[in-house]
Amino acid sequence: MGDLSGDRLVEVLATLASPHRLRVLAALTGGRAYVSQLARDLGISRALLQVHLKKLERAGLVTAHLELSGDGKALKYYEVTPFSLHLTPDVVAAAAATLSTAGDGDAPPKGTS
Amino acid sequence: MGDLSGDRLVEVLATLASPHRLRVLAALTGGRAYVSQLARDLGISRALLQVHLKKLERAGLVTAHLELSGDGKALKYYEVTPFSLHLTPDVVAAAAATLSTAGDGDAPPKGTS
DNA sequence: GGCTCATGCCAACTATTATTGGCATGAGCC
DNA sequence: GGCTCATGCCAATAATAGTTGGCATGAGCC
């Protein structure tokens, strides 16, 4: 995960740039947990937590999997995906070169499609 | 710049999480430039560029200084501030622990005020 | 003086994101 | 059956961030 495409970098950074998500990540770093549990733990609503978890998941920073508790309840456990991102001006410059976002008139040919 | 406070981390990440700013940073990594020049270079309006430059500057990712051109014009040159940020779950967790953002009921005592 | 180029800034609008509350479902437990 | 607990999702409303256009200033150049 040394360097990713500009678009992906933006996604990951945008995902990490949030106090709530940072806390969620921190909580999960201390051990996995299921949604309701985590919500109580962090003192936020489940609806809110779920949105943030989804964003974290989409960015690939956490993963989820269902698990049945002893009494048959379906619990959705989340855990952190190990990652290592080294940001430096050069890395950023390299990533920027692969940005696909419109805005400056040059839309790089996308090899993946 | 190994690890910064949660608040600062969020600020830096939020600042980097933008295609425009990534491009600005990339452009500056290739060499310093003054505002109007850079705007033409990137194909965006000065007003827009200035907003982004300000944000980058506030986050400490770039620095600016006035300089007089040969014909007396005051040009504001910007250049990238070298930085190195290594992001990992642990770093994030540590940063999250220092977050001051309200939201979960605990507002850490702020020494500065 | 009138033209160009550079900076700075604001007011207004649009687009995105964040957050809340409520509602529906499925499954044990009393 | 009625209660609790867990998930999932949506519609509506804040709250922010992004963008545009225009206007004002100061300084060379013709």
From TrEMBL, chains A, B:
PROSITE patterns per record: HTH_ARSR_2 (PS50987)
At the top level, the lineage of the source is Bacteria
- Which SUPFAM superfamilies does the entry mention? Winged helix' DNA-binding domain
Give a yes or no for keyword DNA-binding in this entry.
yes
Looking up Pfam families in the UniProt record yields: HTH_20 (PF12840)
Q: Which InterPro entries match?
A: ArsR-like_HTH, HTH_ArsR_DNA-bd_dom, Metal_resp_trans_reg, WH-like_DNA-bd_sf, WH_DNA-bd_sf
Instruction: Pinpoint the HTH arsR-type domain residues.
Output: 1-95
Q: Name one GO molecular function term.
A: DNA binding
Which UniProt key words apply to this protein?
A: DNA-binding, Transcription, Transcription regulation
What PANTHER family does the annotation carry? Answer: ARSENICAL RESISTANCE OPERON REPRESSOR ARSR-RELATED
What name appears for this protein in its UniProt entry?
Answer: Transcriptional regulator, ArsR family
The species this protein belongs to is Micromonospora matsumotoense
